[in-house]
UniProtKB/TrEMBL annotation:
The active site is at H312, H358, D413. CDD domains: ScCit1-2_like (cd06105). InterPro entries: Citrate_synth-like_lrg_a-sub, Citrate_synth-like_sm_a-sub, Citrate_synthase, Citrate_synthase_AS, Citrate_synthase_euk, Citrate_synthase_sf. The lineage of its organism: Eukaryota, Fungi, Fungi incertae sedis, Mucoromycota, Mucoromycotina. Keywords: Transferase. One of its GO terms (molecular function) is acyltransferase activity, acyl groups converted into alkyl on transfer. The keyword Transferase applies. Belongs to the citrate synthase family. This is Citrate synthase.
């Protein structure tokens, strides 16, 4: 059980402050941690430096006693089927349960909405607070989150040559390609690469990895917004405000800071898209490339290239396009019968209904639910949202009757585009860039722990079809 911030120095001294997946404390207790201490708050790096030796000892002891235990078996179908369900990765920040959905260090999305610090006057958790949770396993205080916001704002400037590189990209180059290109260029600033070349001891690898991660996350709004402004607007960016939070500044750079509801949406969006355990393409790719001791810039850029695929992050764009096509074909006020006919025509035509189903989940994606609740609160009468609500009630029944979908319920991609459209961010090709900014929080927090725990080069064994046939005596 993870111990929370204690209310006295004696409790704090005796508490075991580790970061487990069993973490499910009472909301009232967690909420009290925000008023935690009058002493000067530690920075995230200072707190992490205290936690790492404890976690290293925990992992060492666990491996010594349980290292020979078997996690599972691998079938031939799994080898050919994308390694679905193979238990072979350690990912500290989150675990995805088929029935419960995602848990960030043991906390569900509703838990996070209740206990993670929000902006003054806001209700959605700040991405900074989630990053603190992912890195430490602890719910931060409002003071700690404020300090992290200020630190990211101070690190946000990008080098002039990276600005010029982005500015020279043709508008026809996909925003995700530009995003990946810019992150690779930022590798010029890598503190890990410099320290490694200078011969840093491996026990210290986590420190420059942490610094790279902090710099990378801090610079993402400037990089992402510059791409947006160049491709879709006039190319001019305002300045970041040092005393504002990450999502506010990102919204300002994009040109949407005047709408506080959009800023709140961005806080929710960046939080819930951040991490989805370690086996998805962007997370696994970042981890895999990082296992070769590539620095966080190179590792994350690789993960972004995976996120750009239509079976991963690009899906939110594809879902919105499908929904808009449905609207144009049968109308925004289509009846249930018309919608069902359209769905059956789609399925019988050999096409899929995007935004429904998930490789792991067997229920409605909690990230979808969080966005639906946001819409019910802020835009309940929006026609496109009402159409999505109809689809939410109709599609699962049709897919169940069709019989070829294990999970007929909506995933996160089924809703996010509708919300962005409502607030005027209508450029669908850009949506995956927003996803990428968020995903950085999860994958880079794991990179820090990969280096702190000395995770090795990842190198699974592969076989050819001929070898497998020989192994099983097949003709």
């Amino acid at each position: 059980m993870s111990a929370l911030r204690a209310f006295s120095s004696n409790i704090a001294k005796n508490a075991v402050r580790q970061a487990p997946l069993r973490f499910a404390p009472a909301a009232a207790t967690i909420g009290a941690t925000r008023a935690y201490s009058t002493a000067k708050a530690k920075t995230l790096k200072e707190r992490l430096a205290e936690i790492i030796p404890e976690k290293q000892a925990e992992v060492k002891a666990f491996r010594k006693e349980y290292g020979n235990k078997i996690l599972g078996e691998v079938s031939v179908d799994q080898a050919y089927g994308g390694m679905r369900g193979i238990k072979g990765l350690v990912w500290e920040g989150s675990v995805l349960d088929a029935e419960e959905g995602i848990r960030f260090r043991g906390l569900t999305i509703p838990d996070c909405q209740k206990v993670l610090p929000a902006a003054q006057g806001g209700s959605e958790p700040l991405p900074e607070s989630l990053f603190w949770l992912l890195v430490t396993g602890e719910v931060p205080t409002a003071e700690e989150v404020k300090g992290l916001s200020a630190e990211w704002a101070a690190r946000a400037q990008i080098p002039e040559f990276v600005e010029e590189l982005i500015d020279r990209c043709p508008k026809t180059l996909h925003p995700m390609s530009q995003f990946s290109l810019a992150i690779n260029a930022l590798q010029h600033e890598s503190q890990f690469a410099k320290a490694y070349n200078e011969g840093i001891h491996k026990s210290k690898y986590w420190e420059p990895t942490f610094e790279d991660t902090m710099d990378l996350i801090a610079k993402l709004p400037n990089v992402a917004a510059r791409i947006y402004r160049n491709v879709y607007k006039d190319g001019k960016l305002p300045a970041i405000e040092a005393d504002k939070d990450y999502s506010y500044n990102f919204s300002k750079l994009l040109g949407f800071d005047s709408n506080q509801d959009f800023v709140e949406l961005m806080r929710l969006y960046l939080t819930i898209h951040s991490d989805h355990e370690g086996g998805n393409v962007s997370a696994h790719t970042t981890h895999l490339v990082g296992s070769a001791l590539s620095d966080p810039y190179l590792s994350f850029a690789a993960g972004l290239n995976g996120l750009a695929g239509p079976l991963h992050g690009l899906a939110n764009q594809e879902v919105l396009r499908w929904t808009l096509k449905l609207k144009e074909t049968i109308g925004i006020d289509a009846s249930e019968e018309q919608i069902k006919k359209y769905l059956w025509d789609t399925l019988n035509g050999g096409q899929v209904v995007p935004g429904f189903g998930h490789a792991v989940l067997r229920k409605t994606d909690p990230r979808y639910t969080a966005q639906r609740e946001f819409a019910l609160k802020h835009l309940p009468d929006d026609p496109l949202f009402n159409l999505v609500s109809k689809l939410y009630h109709i599609i699962p029944g049709v897919l169940t009757e069709h019989g070829k979908t294990k999970n007929p319920w909506p995933n996160v991609d089924a809703h996010s585009g509708v919300l962005l459209q409502y607030y005027g961010l209508t450029e669908q090709d850009y949506y995956t860039v927003l996803f990428g900014v968020s995903r950085a929080l999860g994958v880079t927090s794991q990179l820090i722990w990969d280096r702190a725990l000395g995770m090795p080069l990842e190198r699974p064994k592969s076989y050819s079809t001929a070898y497998l046939k020989k192994m099983f005596g097949a003709n």
